[in-house]
Amino acid sequence: MPFFGAPAADNGQQPQPSVAPSAPSIFHTSSKASPATVIAKGVRLEGQFKSQGDVLIEGEVQGTIQTDGLLTVGADAFVKATVTAADAVVAGKVEGNVLAKRRLEVKSTARVNGDIVCETIIVEAGAALKGNLTSGSKTDAKPEPKTEAPSNDPQKTTTPPADAAKADAANKT
Length: 173
Description:
Number of strands: 11
Oligomer: single chain
Number of helices: 1
Helix content: under 10%
Order of helices and strands: EEEEEEEEEEEH
Shape: globular
C-alpha cells in the first residue's frame, strides 16, 4: 500500500516515512534532569526572573535574570537585564552585566553591551562585546555598575572648591 502517494516497496515491506533532520540547536541542557524554562519568541517578560534550572530565552526579557543552571539566549532574543547564571550561551542581544559563575559562550551572532565576569569565556569570530571583562579561575568578582562619563555640558560642570573661593573673592572686589 502506498504511503502518501509513494510507490509500494518491491520487497513486500511498507516504506518508512522519512523525517528531515532538524537544524542544530544552540541550546544544550545541563546535566540536570528537569526540563528547561522557555521564554518563547514573541513573549516579553519584565521584572525579576529566578530559576533553579536551565532557561532558554527566545523572546524579550527586561529586569534581572538569575539561574542556577544554563542560560541560553537565542539568536533573535533581546535581554536588557542584569544576568547571573552558572553557565551561559549567548547568541542574541544582551544589554546589561553578565555574571557566569563557570562558563560563558558568546556565539558569532551575539551582541553584548555590559560588563562580563566569568571563569571561562569562549568567543566566536563575529561576536560583538562592549564592556569590561574579568575572567579566570574561580573568579568571584561582581560586575561594577556602569557610571556616567563626565559631561561636557557647561551647565552640569562643577567648580572645584578652591577655584570657587577665588571666584568669590574676585567678585567682592
